[in-house]
Every structure is written in C-alpha cells, then in structure tokens.
Amino acid sequence: MKASMLKKLDLPTKPGVYFFKKGGNILYIGKATSLRDRVKSYFSKDLIATRGPLIVDMVFKATTVSCQETDSVLEALILEAALIKKHQPHYNTKEKDDKSFLYVAITKEKLPKLLLVRGKDLELKILNSKTEILNKSKISKKEQRKYQTVYGPFTNGNQLREAMKIVRRIFPYIDTQSAKKDNYEFYKQIGLTPEITTPQPPPFKGGVAASRGGADLYRKNIRNLNLFFQGKKKQIIVSLKKDMKQAAAQKEFERAAAIRNQIFALQHINDVSLLTNEAKNYNLSTKTYRVEAYDIAHMSGKNMVGVMTVISNGEKANQEYRKFIIRTQTNSNDTGALEEILSRRFRHTEWGMPDLVVTDGGEAQKRVAERILARYQLDIPVVSVVKDDHHKAREILGDDTFTKTHKQAILLANFEAHRFAITFHKKKRSKSFLPS
Q1: Calpha distance 66→158 (Å, rounded)
Q2: What's the pLDDT tens digit per position in 156-168?
Q3: Please, are residues 61 and 10 in contact by the beta-carbon 8 Å criterion?
Q4: pTM for this one?
Q5: For 36-40, 125-129, 414-418, which range has the lowest pLDDT when averaged over its residues?
Q6: All domains of the chain, ordered by start, with CATH?
Q7: Using alpha carbons only, what angle is made at residue 287 by residues 283 and 292, rounded to the nearest 5 degrees?
Q8: With helix as H, strand as E and coil as C, how does 388-403 read?
Q9: What is the DSSP code string of 235-258?
C-alpha cells in the first residue's frame, strides 16, 4: 500500500480501531487515539527501525485500510482485543508470542474477583472466538471451574493496566490484593473496592465477607463489567438509568446519586492516563508525577525509625523507598523525628525532587515539612493525612488542588509509609531483644 492512498481514505481523528487489509483478508488490527495520525505513522521513513521488518512487510502487502470509531481510547483498547480474538490476524499473532499477552479473567466465586493473567499461565487456546482450556487432563477440575469469563488477548500490558484503573473507578471490583483482610479497608477508602462486608465480618479465609445487599450490588457490578468488555456500553447505561429511577423512587438518594455518577463516568470516560501511556510507548515527552510520603514508628520513644515511600504516576516505586534510624530524639517526639528525616532526605539531591510531600498526622506535621522545605528553598506543596481512632484516613489537610487531584496517590503513599515504618520498627525492635 502506498502513502498517497491515505488522502483518499480520509480517516477520522477520533479514537478507534483500524484494519490493514489485503482484499477482504484482515492482515493486522490496531487501536489508536487518533486513527488518522496512527495510520499515517505506518508510512514514516523510520518504520523499520520503530516497528521492525514484520510490520513493514504487512504494510507492503496491504491494499487498503479501514477503521471503526469508538467513544474513547479505553473502548478502542477493549474492542481491539475482542477483534484480534475473533479474526486472529496473521501479523498480530506473529508480532508477539500469544502466551505473553495479558487476559482479563473473572473468577467463578460467590464474590468474583477480576484478575490479569498471562496466556501461558491460563493455558488458553482461542478457537472460534471462545476461550477453551488446553490439556484438560493435566488440569484439575477445580482449575477448570476457576473462571466464568476471560477477555483478551491484550497486546499491550502497560496500557491494559492503565485501562483497568479507569474501569475500576467506574465499577469497583475485588482482585487478589483487595480480597486480603489487611488490605480491604484501604481499597474501600480509595473507592477501588465496593462496600460489601457485613458490620462484623467473619474470618476472611482469603476473601471478603458480604452482606446480602452488598453482595447483590457487587454482582451487578460484575455483570456490568462483563457487558463493558463485550462492548455493550449502551446496554449498561439503559440498565443503570432504570436502577437510578428505582433507587430514587424508594428514596435511596445516596445510591441514586452513586448510579448517576457511574452513568456520567461511562458517558465521559476520562482516559487521559491512557493517552499518557501511549505517548510513553511511542517515545513522546511525558512528565512523571512523584509523591513522597513520610512516617515515624516507635514504642514509647524506643527504637524510633522513619521512612520515605514513593508513588510515581500512581504506581509504587519500591526501589526508591528509604529507611531512617532516628538519631536526635530520645523520647516520643514525632515532629522532631519528622524534622530529622526530612532534613536528611533533602540533602540527597541525587534522589530527585518530589512534586508533592505527604506527612502523617495533622497541622503540626504539615508545618514541620513546610519549614524544612523553606529552609532548603524548595517550592514543593505539602499535605497531611489525618487519621481517626482506628488509624483510617479521615481528612487530608492541604490545598484542594492537590488533595482532590491526587487523592488516590496521597492515600496510597500514606498507607505504604505506615506499613513500611511498622515493618522496619518491628525488625529493629526484635534485633534489640537479641543478646549481644
């Protein structure tokens, strides 16, 4: 196919899925933020360097390009996976080993989990657009019954993970991490897992416990997630509008408002993070947003330690976590200890500088951080997470611009700091009990 043919095609600038074809045969399927710009990129002079000889061969053999528009980049990502599964284009399956692709799997449980799994782990075979398990004789019946539905393959793992963050804000779900008893409350606080536990749940035994009403609402979320991955967004919206009217008629106004928000989110999908992720994949300029959180741990002033945790673009950067043994405090002076670790941290300019600093406590801790930053002539905003009697986040002190925009990253950074500080303190305390 020649580049001169592109003008005749008059491709739209909207997101969607494109098809390189030879006659009626689909050679390759891809997704795009802008269909016109993405297809145009296949005719650049450096195509062989950026995409390799296989794709160059595909473009040479193609006789035309067609496309299918979507409302958002997120829906383009999902549609691409469904169409690759259905048509099995030669150049998609040859470009990368299918077993390394990711799939979205929904488990068969009373409270289903949504998991991301690799093809090699699922031992899947795609046949006539149905997912079947290979070598059933080698797999236990329990394993065969594990999943109710599987969607994929998704060829770009990073984009899929970003997409699932967007989907999860619309339809919160349980995954392996949020099903753990120690993690459930945190995931619920940041809106990634719905309220489904009874007031005093029985032992978790590897999963959350549910009240009848909470379980029913959660199963509706799972049904909607299935419909969304099947490309049936309009059907979901019709159903949600019906549920919203019913909730309002029963004077369940809080639930009606929550459903209204889901409808709005579906009609105005915010997939900026996917656009950023795509820019990274094509070596475009992107900025990393770095959140650093600090916490202190001790027992009546003994074995006092401090930590720093880092969240980069919403993800934990574990390799950049830091530990501090407090040297200047001999009593339960949390603000004094915080001042010490911040002073020591900001001498390390080689660690890079944060875009936002998070402290654990209240105004006192926030003021300490602001004073240290001013001392080092650093213009970095500070927020502080205030906890209730059960050590759950009750309020975030600071400029609304940051507390609202980066709420999830702030809470995750704070949660990680508390966890990391307690773990470090316990190790130090256990060492102090050992005989010298």
Answers
A1: 26
A2: 888 898 899 889 9
A3: no
A4: 0.61
A5: 125-129
A6: 3-69 (3.40.1440.10), 99-277 (no CATH), 290-433 (3.30.420.340)
A7: 135
A8: CCCCCEEEEECCHHHH
A9: HHHHHHHHHHHHHHHTT-HHHHHH
Pair 156, 281: CB distance under 8 Å = yes
Phi then psi for residue 78, to 5 deg, are -70, -40
| Radius of gyration for the chain, computed over Cα atoms and rounded to the nearest angstrom | 25
Identify the residue whose tokens are 């006092």.
Answer: 304
The helix/strand/coil state of 196 is: coil
What pLDDT, in 10s, does the model give residues 300-328? 878 899 999 999 888 898 889 999 999 88
Tally Cβ neighbours within 10 Å of residue 65: 20
Instruction: Show Cβ contacts of residue 271 under 8 Å, excluding neighbours closer than 6 positions.
Output: 72, 73, 74, 163, 166
Residue 163 Cα distances to 101, 171, 183, 303, 309, angstroms: 15, 12, 22, 43, 25
| 120 DSSP 8-state letter | H
- Read off the tokens for 402: 């940051």
